[in-house]
Amino acid sequence: MGWNSWNHFAGRITAADVRAMADAMVSTGMRDAGYVYVNVDDTWEGSRAPSGEIQSNAKFGDMKALADYVHARGLKLGIYSSPGDTTCAGFAGSHGHEVQDARTFAAWGVDYLKYDYCGARDIYPVTRENQEALFRRMGAALHETGRPIVYSLSQSGDFDIWRWGSTTGANVWRTTPDISDNWDSMSQRGFRQLDLGPWSGPGRWNDPDMLEIGNGGITSDEYRTQMSLWSILPAPLLAGNDLRTMDPATKEILLNREVIAVDQDPLGNPARRLEKQGEVDVLVRDMADGSVVVGFFNRGNAEAKAALSWDRLGGRFRQGAVVHDLWKHVTLPSSNSFVGHISRHGVTLLRINPAGATANSVARDRDITEVE
């Protein structure tokens, strides 16, 4: 969880902007809600010193000082590079300097590296073997520094990277091309992840790209859908808006701790599609405390009715369920089913426990059911 500069600032990002975002993450409560990484994307890079060490450009200056500023606020700093001679935006990449750059990043106090294949396309044929070798080279270099650095790969999901990304030492890998701030882009990337669940879990995450929430291209219902979908999958939550100017609706979505708790559930179980009801996808996810999260996602262009009998979730629910709505923040009386209307491109996200069950007994009953 954290923030990345690209969606809002792109190549305009400066060290002053990064400091401002770090301050805003504290003042808005985002840090306390779990958003801890402040990630600088492309265009921070300058030239190399005669010794070969990478230097920042005039927009950024002293990167160690920037890391210290971020760390002093209880946050972590992320940075960007590429296995090519240049990055996507044409700045200095890490090709031939992997060990040197990894040591430099560690010395600065970097906690996260986004490594984008872009520039390497100009050097090597685009094959899985070349990508694996180049990503593995930086993965080994980061490991050798001895500093814990989250390693995130970006190459648009080529060659089914979810099947082999973890072999490079990476923790996170993009499974899609870049996201845009519109409904089609967001929904295509999000729902695509349902096929990739078997390759995702603690320490090795599929990444459908950053959140667009607050950038203004779609409605609050649609942004609420992105937050719900990324959380139930689960996927990294990296905000991509200007945190200094968030309106109340944006804050309400990004800071919904009940939804964040779904994303951060320690089991890391993937969501699955239980059924499709016309334009409504019914997604379910088993949680560490034995509850089940159910999301009714309306992908259609008009309001849609959805219904579900709780016994569809398993024998534990035959006597009914206690239902908590994660967006309305209300717990409903025990019931045997759900019937509701889902707004266009909207979502209803519910956390379900068997009627009368405690969290411990729910977990125990789940384990017994799985054995049976």
Overall description:
With 372 residues, this protein is an alpha/beta fold. The protein folds into two domains: 2-263, TIM Barrel (Alpha-Beta Barrel), CATH 3.20.20; 272-371, Sandwich (Immunoglobulin-like). The protein is 30% helix and 24% strand. The chain contains eleven helices and 18 strands. It has helices at residues 6-9, 15-27, 30-33, 63-72, 98-108, 128-145, 183-192, 220-232, 248-254, 257-263, 359-371; strands at 2-4, 37-39, 45-48, 54-56, 76-81, 112-116, 150-154, 172-174, 205-207, 238-239, 272-277, 280-286, 292-298, 304-309, 321-325, 330-335, 337-342, 347-354. The strands form four sheets. It has an eight-stranded parallel beta sheet. Residues 359-372 have low confidence and may be disordered.
